[in-house]
Amino acid sequence: MPSVESVRRNKWVGWIGPAIYHPRLWHLNRKGVATGAAIGIFFGFLVPVLQIPVAAVVAVWLRGNIVIAISTTLITNPFTFAPIYFFANEMGAFVFSVLEPETPNVITGAAYQAGDLVVSWFDKFMSVGKNVAIGLILFAIIGATTVYTSILGIWRLVVYVEWRRRSRRKH
């Protein structure tokens, strides 16, 4: 991790000022890593463009580890983009089928049937967009919450096991 002095001297980020010098932004500690990972996962799912700068700004604001926040935004990349959006569409279709039972899942059902081309395409586009948006929002919330609590829990477990090991070694 970069030192505070190296960040201060860097011409690209040094101008931001004291907000970027907080130790939790650059050091590996339980709270900073958990917050940074949750921010990265949240914006990795939710913001399809400029997710890295958005995650970095929010990480500074919420005092999350910037490097972890930027790294975890890469959950959406060229290899995972299609499956994530497919499952987001499925999740959104499921949610809308529960809320509005007459809403079809256009990707796996009637999406490829012929009809009036312009009207059919627009209806399908709007339905898919709504499904994907709701699916991505749910993925972002569930993913960020799961990552945050998992990191805090695993970190505590590792510290507990290490303390027990040291305690046994002393006696």
Layout of helices and strands:
Layout: H1 4-9, H2 30-46, H3 51-62, H4 66-72, H5 81-99, H6 117-170
Helix pairs in contact: 2-3, 2-4, 2-6, 3-4, 5-6
Care to count the β-strands? 0
Poorly predicted tracts of residues: 107-112
Strand content: under 5%
SS-based class: mainly alpha
Which bin fits the share of residues in helices? 55-70%
Shape: flat
Quickly count the helices.
Answer: 6
Give the N-terminus to C-terminus distance in angstroms. 36 Å
Major sheet: size, sense and barrel closure?
none
Secondary-structure element pattern, one letter each:
HHHHHH
Radius of gyration: 22 Å
Describe the structure.
- It contains six helices and no strands.
- The chain is mainly α and 171 residues long.
- It has one domain.
- Helix 2 packs parallel to helix 4.
- The longest helix is centred in the C-terminal third of the chain and has 54 residues.
- It is flat.
Q: Which keywords apply here?
A:
171 residues; mainly alpha; 67% helix; 0% strand
State the gist of this model.
67% of the residues lie in helices and 0% in strands. With 171 residues, the chain is mostly helical. It is flat and about 65 Å long.
